[in-house]
Each structure stands twice: as structure tokens, then as C-alpha cells.
Amino acid sequence: MAPRSDTSTRLNELRMKHGRPPASPGEPKAETPQTPQTLREAQPRFRGLESGHRACQGCGEALAARLVMESAGPDVMVANATGCLEVFSTPWPQSAWRVPWIHSLFENSAAVASGMESALKAQGKNTKVLSFGGDGGTYDIGFQALSGMLERHHNVLYVTYDNEAYMNTGIQRSSSTPHSATTTTSPAGKERMGKRHLKKDLLSIIAAHHIPYAASASVAYPADLQRKVRYAMGVEGPTFLVIHSPCPLGWKHDSALTIEVARRGVECGLFPLVELERGALTNIMPIRNPRPVSDYLELQGRFAHLFRKDDYRATEELDHLQALADHNIATYGLRGEGIDPVDTTGVAQVKRGGPLAGRN
To answer: Domain total for the chain?
Structure first.
């Protein structure tokens, strides 16, 4: 470190260079004019899920839950199914939640939320109920309770944090696990190239309930995710949001790559971002420059077996996954046309004031 006298001399030289001569001894310092804060700037951001929990580094689910809670605001109650989010946020006697929060069983978060909503309605209160679950507690063992909640038209926002396997119990496959992914119960080997079955199209099943609003989102696009939460919060009746949430542990990617992995999943078409109202498609996020699925898969160790040069099955499965992505792009009309401020490139380029519509 330079001596203090040398540092002072250098600072004085820099001030003179930029037309800011140093103040003489005893001369009062000029006060920097302060721009008055707007009301929005003066308000602290609400954090319904506090930091300091025990999520893994780079956990997509933790980020997704925090974004949801920031958008939902303080006047909410949460029913949370057993799973990663419940475990890492509430190790007794601690809790990272700053709103009323109830731990349900793996399979009945939607049923518990239905009871909470009915009780609040009987009391004449307008507090919104949120129901959280992972893909195991939503796509699989909790689907019956979820379907019942939607059919009975409870005023609940159900959010599933989709990390595509039972991560909390040891990375077992779920019906949300993608085709060809390896898990502890669908390992790649001589007989099979990972999971044989396709990822369940849950959003279409939810849309078949003709609920007011259902959508998909990704942690790679936080502004889009929060917009969808805010919209759902203003809808009377059942709403549903599935959020693609990479898991560094289960997906076997570097924890620093969570956002990049999520973004590539959207850009290749394997996880389309869409909105549906009463079962009808009402909005999409166009893909400006669709990527090959290999760009998405190559970052994840769970698909490493698909890049073996000495196994013809690897090429076949890559072609199969590419066909699935192409089908999604064609079905939802995801291929963008030109530069669009709300496509996958435009919406990701933000600064103070909003999207940068003119950047490539």
C-alpha cells in the first residue's frame, strides 16, 4: 500500500486534471446536490423469503421463490409442500419466511391451500393464498389435490418449482424429468440412455381445467417471471405458474451457470414460455435465435452420455430431443421475427428504464 502522503499527492493531481482543485485548509467542502428520491426508490423491496437459508449454491428454486415473493407482496399466506424449498428454508427452530407459512405433506399442498382460502373467505379477508410445490409434489403425488383445487375454483395461486426430479430425496426421476436424462432411478447404461419416457406436458393438463390463468416462466428471465406473478395475483380464481428452476446438484452443472443453463433451455425450445387463459394460448415469449438443443444439454452432466462419440444411441437421442424442441417451436409459434424487445434476447437486456429494444 502506498504511503498516505503519496496517496494524497496523487489524489490532488487527479483533481487538478479533471478541473476539481483540492480545497485549501479550512475551506468548507462543497456539498454534492442530492436528487430527491421517488416514492418507489424510498420504499424497501419486500423480501418474503429472507437470505441466510440453507439452499445449495446456485439453487434455481431459491431464486425463483424469492422472485415470486417479491412480486406477491406481504399480504399473502403460503402452503408449502415437503421438498427442497421447505427443507432448506425452515430448519427448526429457524425460518427464512417473513409471511404466514404452513408446511404441508408432500402430496397435499393444494388441499391445505384450499382450506386456508376457504377460511379466509369465511372471515371476509382478501389475503391471497399461495401454494408451493416441486415437480414431484405437483406432477406426480400431489396432482390429485391440485386438480381438485382447480376444479373447485379456489382463489389460490399455485406455483411449482420445476427442477425436473425428486432432488430432496436423492435425485430420483419424476414425470417432469426430461427424456434421456440420467437420475439415480433412471441411470444411463448398456440397456437404456437415461429416462425412456417424455417429460409430462403438465401445463396443457392444467389448461384443460379451463382456469383463468396458467403460465410458464424461467429464472433466466426474472422480469417476465415477476410480471406473470403480478398478473396472477390480480386474477380472481385459481391460477397456475410453473417455473423452470435448474438444480446444480441434480443437473450436474457448475453453480455459477444456473442462469445460463435456464436461458439455453428456453432458447432451444425445450422449455417454452407461454401464457394461457381459460385453456387458450394468449401470449408467448418469441425466440429470436433458436439454439440447437446440444447447446443446452452440453452444460449438464445428466446428459453427458449423449455426447459419447462411440455410441450410436447418443446421436439418436440427441436427434429425438431436437425433434421435441422443434415441435414446441412449431406448436406455439415461438420463432421470432426480427428484433423484438420482449423476445428471449430483448427481454434479457435491461437497464434502468426497461428493455433495450435496439440492441442485438
So the answer is: 1
